[in-house]
Design a protein that fits this description.
The chain is of the alpha/beta class. Helices cover 37% and strands 15% of the residues. Strands 10-9-8-7-4-3-12-11 form an 8-stranded parallel beta sheet.
Length: 304
Amino acid sequence: MLKECLDNNRALAWKIGNDLVPAESMPLVMGIVNVTPDSFFDGGRYADPDAAFEHAVALLQQGADILDIGGESSRPGSTPVSEQEEMDRVCPVVEAFSQLSTISEDLNNPGNRKFYISVDTTKSKVAAECMRLGAHIINDISACTMDPDMPETVAKTGASVVLNHMRGSFGNMQQDFKPYTDVVHEVLDELVTQAGKLVALGVEKEKICIDPGIGFGKSVQDNIDLMKSVEEFLGTGYPVLVGTSRKSYIGKMHKLEDSDRLIPTVTAGVIAALGGASVIRVHDVREAKESILYLEALRSNGTV
């Protein structure tokens, strides 16, 4: 069964900008750049745009394919920020990286490996401005439900998009969410519904990536069920992103209460890759990239 799992990689390509980016060899690694004072894992360390830029450069050097730049924390209980404040945080970083089309020797990384810029926002005006500055992807954790103008913004800008599943709001999603009867199929159906709305507006299906939203308004068991069912999302025809990096549900699992959550995060990334994920979203890019490279070495008998 393990050999069959290794040999049968069904990850779908994702169209980012004008590039159809394959993922059947191994998933893309999306590195997290939080330009915020209050994110749950690294809040405050990269709140200054210069510090965020340096951190993002380090993630590219470690192997990130996508930089996901966010200026508003989505941790449970976080406080929303204004459009202007969010733009003041993220736009300088987006603009700086939009001047670089590849990871070149200028970043102490020989070669010309291409990378992509994602903006993590639920606000259409922030998304539109970042796309104007050169971003490629809108990563909306509300699956384009919080801002009624976001679907049209995605369509008008030609952005690629990540639809993350969430019920409730930043402040209450872990307190007031309604229990699921069948979490896998309910999440899947809600994401497909939102994706269909974008397609109806003219967004190319190949540009839409779906994310089951691990940790967003879900119980520990819900998250476990979703992690075990990544391959079921492939039947939608949309590429799948899995983001479980350092999330608090890991520390609620048996005997992991004192974990720093790094090793479970790396393990989760490998499981997601085996399930057919096209993208894994992480804080710790080096560790994630090496685990995926090891997986690919097994698939290719060590020749890659």
